[in-house]
Design a protein that fits this description.
The protein has 189 residues and is an alpha+beta fold. It has two domains: 111 residues, Orthogonal Bundle (Penicillin amidase (Acylase) alpha subunit, N-terminal domain); 54 residues, no CATH class. It is built from five helices and nine strands. The strands form four sheets. The protein has a three-stranded antiparallel sheet with strand order 7-8-9. Helix 1 packs across helix 2. The protein starts with 9 loop residues before the first helix and ends in a 13-residue tail after the last helix. The mean pLDDT is 94.
Length: 189
């Protein structure tokens, strides 16, 4: 399931799956620890009771949208977002229990969507190599500062929304040429 900011329908699946995943004997092939990537799989739709519970799970998802005055066909970024300094920043990701790699958990607010992010991805870093050496990049999904007046209050949240990364200085040359470098000497007595 994709939970990109332009995805449509994943929010319905997420709510549906909150209920459906708890159905006993849901899968035709249950989880096998010897095949963790291939199991469980297959919905046991030959069982009338399971079919009914699946329909009830979908009905639950639609009811949540109706009860919270949200459109079923909205883009995910219009429903899940963070507001920083009055700016709505759409966020991708979703519940880990629905198979999302980009974990994001938020509180549902009537008429608004999932606009209060509770937890999820935070500091993410990759380190790779190319012909020139180490390439280090990272992102702090919630930005670096909690002070709305600080320029780092929402900058990385916006980059995260756009699936962009910050190049991190790694070599001594990159570190010393960083315009934000501050050296603090601590002397012991």
């Amino acid at each position: 399931m994709k939970t990109n900011i332009d995805s449509i329908g994943n929010q319905v699946f997420y709510l549906f799956w909150q209920k459906a995943r708890k159905i006993d004997n849901l899968h035709t092939l249950p989880f096998d620890p010897e095949k963790p990537l291939d199991t469980p799989r297959g919905l046991n739709t030959k069982d009338r009771d399971i079919r009914l519970q699946l329909i009830q799970s979908l009905d639950y998802a639609v009811d949540v949208f109706d009860d919270n005055l949200l459109p079923l066909d909205a883009k995910w970024g219009d429903l899940q977002y963070e507001i920083r300094n009055g700016k709505k920043i759409p966020l991708f990701g979703g519940g880990f229990d629905a198979g999302n790699f980009s974990a994001m958990r938020a509180r549902l607010t009537k008429g608004e969507g999932w606009s209060e992010i509770l937890h999820g991805n935070s500091y993410i870093q990759t380190v790779t190599w190319n012909d020139d050496g180490v390439v280090a990049e990272g992102i702090l999904s919630y930005s670096q500062s909690s002070d709305p007046a600080n320029p780092h209050y929402q900058d990385q949240t916006e980059l995260y929304s756009e699936k962009k990364w910050v190049k991190l200085p790694f070599t001594e040359e990159e570190i010393l040429s960083d315009p934000n470098l501050k050296i603090i000497e601590i002397k012991s007595d």
